[in-house]
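Narrative summary of target 7.
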Amino acid sequence: MDYPTEQQLPVEVRDIVKKFRVPVDRLKVISDDMVAAMKRGLES
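Modeled conformation, tokenized:
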């Protein structure tokens, strides 16, 4: 399975990455559920 590069990620996810300075390889362990939860957190 190919993981997306940082440029291919949704903008809101890139913003989260920048905010917390998460190394890109750490993103490999982030599941869709976690991403969805982070998006909900940003919207509330």
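The chain has one domain: 6-43.
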